[in-house]
What does this fold into?
Amino acid sequence: MLRLAAAIAAVTLIAPSLAAPAAARDIVVEAGPNAQERLQAALIEAEPGDVVRIGAGRFELTDGLSLDVDRVSVIGAGTDKTVLSFKGQLGAGEGLLVTSDDVVLRGFAVEDTRGDGIKSKGADRIVYKDIRVEWTGGPKATNGAYGVYPVESSNILVDGVTVKGASDAGIYVGQSDTIIVRNSTVSHNVAGIEIENSRNADVYGNLATHNTGGILVFDLPSLPKGNGGDVRVYKNKVIDNDTPNFAPPGNIVATVRTGTGVLIMANDHVWVFDNDLSGNATSNVMVISYRVAFTDTNYDPYPRQIIVSGNRHGKAGFKPELPGGDQLTAAFGGSIPPIMWDGTGSDLGLRVDDGVPVLGMGLALGQGPEHAKPGLATLNGPDVPQRAPVVLPAAMEAAAK
It folds into this structure.
């Protein structure tokens, strides 16, 4: 193994980037021997404004990478040209961990990490653009939990990202604020896109297909940041989410039913509109409360101010993964209604205006499915005006062009 100093010397420095400050550098790391040491050295030695350019080729890595320098861009030659392979990873951590602000990650792939694909924690103004994260062996409980994983952050842009095979969520944004997830494709994950304990998020223009559940918006208790809400889910294609749940036992997403389109749980002010929803065997849209015992006195387990309107529904509810699912489908003539509501929060501003029937399960908080009294339901709460679109700093949008 090269010593760190020798690895740093092996990093090629070329002329400053025109888009960067005059003192900034392009630091080029090519594929080849000692890629682990050379690439990590580049990330350590980068200074604010620098661009770490990862060349085309396959980088065989045995350990996770980390970046903790502000205002650094990490740019590859494309998601099919620059591949960071962690198939030989010895530890169980993420492929790349970012803990600095104003970072742009663009144009490369991360494959077969033992832990999460790319995680940014406590890092503000992060851009994920044209990134692919994949577990190439297909859906397995031993795959890493999250593909792209910004957490405890503000101003997040996920744009043009592809994730396959995550054992929890392909794209997960948690305990964060001011978020855009757009133009991305998630498939063969347990959850495709997950917005958890976060506020002010726009999720649009995405394709969520062949996951267990397509798009999840929910709040959990006893986390450092709670009270999630103000989420808009629109202009997405959430279709054919049919992968059996492969999450490790005990994970919250292990309870997601195969064939779930959009799931909203215990959140506040969520608008689901102008989406194409079809081929989801349990339900196109589910609105539910959190049903596990909790001790967090500030936690609200109910869905509040949820508006579902103007969506286009195809076939759904034809094989619901629910207790008594066969009897339910028989009772409704072969498929249950495409929207499902557990029966809680009806006085908290729930509204469905999609022109399709709603199946109410007739449950109260704390009741299990054995108490269900299914039947058609009407949710006609007030049509709450949408909040304004999320606006990110101009520099972030410029970095994504």
